[in-house]
Amino acid sequence: MHTTFVFDSAGWCQPATRIASPNQDDRPGNELPSLLVIHNISLPPKQYGGPGVIELFTNQLDANEHPYYAGICHLRVSAHFLIRRTGELIQFVPVLKRAWHAGVSQWQGRERCNDFSIGIELEGTDDEVFTAAQYAVLHDLATALRTFLPSLTAVTGHSDIAPGRKTDPGPCFDWTRLVGPTHPFSQEPS
Ligand SMILES: [Zn+2]
């Protein structure tokens, strides 16, 4: 089943659950994004469906709730989108704004990938396959993004722009669901 996603002039997507993150700002020079970055995340790690990721992206993670949270609750991070295991799409940052998802990063010789990228988090871990519902939403979302933003021509993984520091989306992510002749992107990640 396909979903038709559309964007308003600010870069908010519909249909999506909207939970605004304070961890966003303007893109330098209001540059239009050219790179899509795929991530995975789950909080607590390998536990799905809870509020942890939303709490992290809205600066509401409770350090006392889980031992893992104590080490990350101080972070000020976000992504534009989270796709739940169920296929639910949550948007935290409009795509014309800069989300804080990539950290120290470099793509094709250019640093600070947040300046020129869109970040999509898939609820998951490096060593577990993603769901069919996630791939379906990712495909349709990427298609809509490319229509809204013709500047968006490349896709990569977080591990490719922050090697040695990040490992997501991990070996279980199937790039052939996103890249290929009938898919939103024609080029392999680089
Ligand atoms: Zn990541």
Helices and strands in order:
Elements lengths: L5 E2 L5 E2 L2 E2 L5 E3 L8 E7 L10 H6 L9 H4 L10 E3 L5 E3 L5 E3 L6 E2 L2 E2 L5 E7 L8 H17 L5 E4 H4 L29
Parallel strand pairs: 3-7, 5-11, 5-12, 6-11
Antiparallel strand pairs: 1-2, 4-8, 6-7, 9-10
Bound molecules: zinc ion (ZN).
The site of zinc ion has 4 residues, from loops.
Structure commentary:
- The chain is α/β, with parallel strands linked by helices and 190 residues long.
- The protein has a single domain (6-177), classed as 3-Layer(aba) Sandwich (Lysozyme-like), CATH 3.40.80.
- The protein has 4 helices and 12 strands, in the order βββββααββββββαβα.
- Strand 1 and strand 2 (13-14) form a beta hairpin.
- Residues 39, 158, 166, 168 line the site of zinc ion.
Question: Which key features would you list for this structure?
Answer:
190 residues; alpha/beta; Lysozyme-like; six-stranded mixed sheet; two-stranded antiparallel sheet; 4 helices; 12 strands; 21% strand; binds zinc ion
**Average of pLDDT:** 96
Total count of helical runs of at least 4 residues = 4
- The assigned structural class equals alpha/beta
Round the Cα radius of gyration to an integer and report it.
Answer: 15 Å
- Compute the separation of the termini in Å: 29 Å
- Classified by CATH, the class is Alpha Beta
Number of strands: 12
Domain tally: 1
